[in-house]
Amino acid sequence: xxxxxxxxxxxxxxxxxxxxxxxxxxxxxxxxxxxxxxxxxxxxxxxxxxxxxxxxxxxxxxxxxxxxxxxxxxxxxxxxxxxxxxxxxxxxxxxxxxxxxxxxxxxxxxxxxxxxxxxxxxxxxxxxxxxxxxxxxxxxxxxxxxxxxxxxxxxxxxxxxxxxxxxxxxxxxxxxxxxxxxx
Length: 183
Prior knowledge:
Layout: H1 2-26, H2 29-47, H3 49-60, H4 63-78, H5 95-108, H6 121-133, H7 138-171
């Protein structure tokens, strides 16, 4: 009988932990993301959606802009997870690759820009702890982590282009290379 009681208590504890996490998110990350969405949409309205589409179309034609510059600027200005919202300005063909590059950048920039993805800062700090114990400066590590991250994120985005093309052929689907936004 004790086993059944402990199982039931553990089962309820699981859902209580989920509820606590949900409430924590509702008072921290959800309002932040909502405010960033409002700011981004306001900026888009001020600049003009047509101009943004033209910038996105030009950016999507160049892999360096698509997987290096846009994820960097988006991450720096909007942080994670809002950086992914810029993917809406990418053609369907490049959305998977943009997402791959932006998602990776949210991790490799934490040493220099911890605001981008504070939840992942513990990874950088764990590595930095070892560097500190060796008596070495952590700024060098952070800069190298950022630079290697930029290169690897670009490569990751470009490789995803190739895998997306392979899946297109396999599934006999053709993704658009033009930006199509629905209002």
